[in-house]
Design brief:
By secondary structure, the chain is an alpha/beta fold. The chain has 2 domains: 16-143; 147-364, Aldolase class I (TIM Barrel, Alpha-Beta Barrel). Helices cover 53% and strands 9% of the residues. It has 16 helices and 8 strands. The protein has an 8-stranded parallel barrel, surrounded by 6 helices. Strand 4 (239-242), helix 11 (249-256) and strand 5 (261-266) form a beta-alpha-beta unit.
Length: 369
C-alpha cells in the first residue's frame, strides 16, 4: 500500500514544510487517541462489538497514514501548547460527556488533517474526510440510549408469534417464565389482499400490537414488530424485524432513529454482511431446518449458523424449525440465541416449555469471547 503521507517533504526544523509535518503528526495522534477512548467505551461498557469493529477500522486506517517521516518531525518540548488545559475538561462529569468530547476531538483533528493535507498528503486528507463523515453518524449511535441494546445482548430466547387462539395468554405465560424478546408476526392477509376472503385489518393489528407491547413492557421484555415500520412506530415498539424483501434497513433507520432496534432475516453470508453494513442490530440466521413457517425455502443447516456467528459482530439468532429437542445444536454452533415459533405458540404449556428452552440454551451456549 502506498504511504498516504509519503509526499510530505520534511524540511529542516523551523521550515514551513517541517511545521506542516508536525501539525499532521499531532492531529493524527489526537484522532487515534480519541478513537481509542471511544472504542474502549464501546467494547468494555456498551459491549457493542459492531461499533468496536467500525472504530477499530477507523483507527487502523489512520495508523496506516501515520508514516515514520511524520513521526520524526515530532518535538513535544518545543510545542508552546504542551500541557495546556481548559476548565471544560474538568467539567465532564459523566462517561457520556467524555465520549462526546472525544468524538468532537477526533472530528476536529480530522478536519485539520483534511485542510492541511490537501497539498502534499492528498490521500491522507481524503481518508480523514471519509472517517469524519462516518463518525458523525456513528456518534449518534454512541450517545443514544443503550437500554434496548443491553437487553438484546442478554436475551437468548426469541419468540416470534403466529396467530393462535388466546395469543395474549400464550405470550404472557412465556414472559412470566423468563422470556425477554417477542416479535409480533401477523401474516394473515388484509381484506384487500384477497377479495372476498377477509383477513386481519390494520386496526386489529394495532390493537393486538398495543396489547403485546404493554405485556412486554410489564415484564421488562423487548417488543419487536415484523415488517411494519409504521405499526412499530404507532405502538412505540422497541424495534422492527425486516425480511429480505421488506423496507431497506437504512430507510427504516431514518424513520426509527438510533435507539430502536432493527433486525434482519439472513439466509447466506452475503445477506449477513449487508445487514451488518446497513447497521442492523441483530440478525436471524436460517431456516436451520425445514419449517412450514417458510414454505418453499430450503434449510441452510447448522453450517450457516457456524459461518454467520464466526464473522458477525451482532447477535445471531438461529431460526427455522428450532425446538426443545434441537435447540442445543444451534447454541453449540455458536448462535447467540434461538428464535422459535411453533415450539412455544402451539405448546400445551408454553410457560413450562419456555423454562425448559432457557435451561437448554443456558447449558449449551458456547463461552463468549
Amino acid at each position: 500500500m502506498a504511504d498516504p503521507a509519503a509526499r510530505v517533504v520534511i524540511s529542516p526544523p523551523g521550515g514551513a514544510h517541517h511545521g506542516i509535518a508536525r501539525l499532521l503528526d499531532a492531529n493524527l495522534n489526537r484522532a487515534r487517541e480519541g478513537l481509542r477512548v471511544v472504542e474502549d467505551w464501546c467494547r468494555l461498557v456498551l459491549q457493542r462489538p459492531e461499533l468496536v469493529a467500525q472504530l477499530k477500522d477507523y483507527r487502523q486506517r489512520l495508523g496506516q497514514c501515520h508514516s515514520s517521516s511524520l513521526k520524526q518531525a515530532r518535538h513535544a518540548a518545543s510545542d508552546p501548547a504542551t500541557g495546556l488545559t481548559h476548565q471544560a475538561q474538568q467539567e465532564r462529569s459523566t462517561p457520556q460527556q467524555v465520549v462526546a468530547a472525544n468524538c468532537a476531538r477526533v472530528q476536529e483533528a480530522l478536519r485539520v488533517l483534511e485542510e492541511f493535507g490537501r497539498h502534499g498528503a492528498a490521500e491522507l486528507a481524503a481518508t480523514a474526510a471519509i472517517i469524519r463523515y462516518g463518525l458523525y453518524d456513528l456518534e449518534t449511535a454512541l450517545l443514544a440510549n443503550q437500554e434496548r441494546h443491553q437487553t438484546l445482548r442478554q436475551a437468548r430466547l426469541y419468540l416470534v408469534t403466529q396467530p393462535v387462539p388466546e395469543l395474549l395468554l400464550v405470550v404472557k405465560a412465556c414472559l412470566e417464565a423468563g422470556l425477554r424478546l417477542v416479535q409480533y408476526r401477523e401474516k394473515s392477509p388484509r381484506p384487500d389482499d384477497r377479495p372476498g376472503e377477509g383477513g386481519v385489518t390494520d386496526h386489529q393489528r394495532f390493537r393486538t400490537a398495543t396489547a403485546l407491547r404493554q405485556l412486554c413492557w410489564d415484564h421488562g421484555a423487548l417488543f419487536i414488530v415484523n415488517d411494519r415500520v409504521d405499526l412499530a412506530l404507532s405502538v412505540e415498539a422497541d424495534g422492527v424485524h425486516l425480511g429480505q424483501d421488506d423496507l431497506p434497513p437504512l430507510a427504516a433507520r431514518r424513520l426509527l432513529g438510533p435507539e430502536r432496534l432493527i433486525g434482519r432475516s439472513t439466509h447466506c453470508l452475503e445477506h449477513l454482511r449487508q445487514a451488518v453494513a446497513d447497521g442492523c442490530d441483530y440478525v436471524g440466521v436460517g431456516p436451520v431446518h425445514a419449517t412450514p413457517t417458510k414454505p418453499g425455502r430450503p434449510p441452510v443447516g447448522l453450517d450457516y449458523v457456524r459461518q454467520a456467528t464466526a464473522c458477525s459482530p451482532v447477535p445471531c439468532f438461529a431460526i427455522g424449525g428450532v425446538n426443545l429437542e434441537n435447540a442445543h445444536q444451534a447454541m453449540g454452533s455458536g448462535a447467540h440465541g434461538v428464535a422459535v415459533v411453533r415450539a412455544l405458540m402451539t405448546a400445551s404449556d408454553p410457560g413450562a416449555v419456555t423454562r425448559q428452552l432457557l435451561q437448554v440454551i443456558g447449558t449449551s451456549a458456547l463461552p463468549r469471547p
